[in-house]
Amino acid sequence: MELQVETITYSSNSDTYISKIDDFLITPMHSSIKADFSYELSSEDFADGVIKLKKVGSISAYRINLFEPERSLAILADLISQDLCFAASYFLYDDGKNYLSSQYLYYIDEVFIKPEYRQFGFALKGLAMFLENFAQGEAVSCHPCPLKDLRAKYEEKYGKRLLRRYWSKVGLNKYSIDNNILWTDDWSMPSWLKHQIFFED
User: Fold this and answer.
1) Per-residue confidence (pLDDT) for residue 13, from 0 to 100
2) Under a CB-based contact definition with an 8 Å cutoff, are residues 61 and 29 in contact?
3) Which alpha helices (H) appear in the chain, and where do they start and end?
4) pTM of this prediction?
5) Dihedral sign for Cα atoms in the order 84, 9, 118, 149
6) How far is 196 from 201, CA to CA, in rounded Å?
7) Looking at the 3D structure of the chain, how many domains does it have?
8) Residue 98 CB: number of other CB atoms within 10 A?
9) Tell me, what CATH number does 183's domain have?
C-alpha cells in the first residue's frame, strides 16, 4: 500500500516569538500521512484515472538547531510548549547534553493516526518516512506518552512502557526514565522497517 508523508515547515521573517530568526532556531514541522486505498475504487474510477489518497493521520515535530546559543533555544522552547521545553532542557543542560554531536535535534511532539486506521502500521511507517527525509544521522527524541484519546484506556506507567516499546521499533533506542525521554543520537531507519516501507506490496 502506498503511503505519502507531506511535510510543511514554518519559516517566516515576522516577529513570531522573540526575534525575526526564531523559526531558524526551532522550526515547527507538520506532516500529513496519506494512504492509497485504490483497492476500494470501482472499475469506472480506474478508467477515469482516479487515485484515492486518504489522510489517515499527522505528525507534529520541531527541529532544534543545536548550533545556536543554548539560552536562546531554552527560552524559545519554553515559549512554545512545556514538553518541548523539558526535552530541550534535557539535551541542552542535563545528562542528555553529553550524548549529542549532531547539528539538529528533532523532537517528535505527536504522531496521530485516526482510530479506524491504526491496524495498518501507519504510525511507525509514517514517522520513519518523515525521519528518512529530514533526520538521517541527526538526533531524534520524543516523550513516549499515550495520545489523549488513549489515556483513559491505559494506566500512566503502563501506557508509557507500551509507547516506549512501540517507538523503539523506529530506531529510538536510548531512554531516560527520570525524564521519560526516548531518543537516539544518530538516527537511521531500521532495516526491517525500510523493507516493509519500500519493498513489500
Assistant:
1) 44
2) yes
3) 22-25, 43-47, 70-80, 82-92, 122-134, 156-168, 191-198
4) 0.85
5) positive
6) 8
7) 1
8) 9
9) 3.40.630
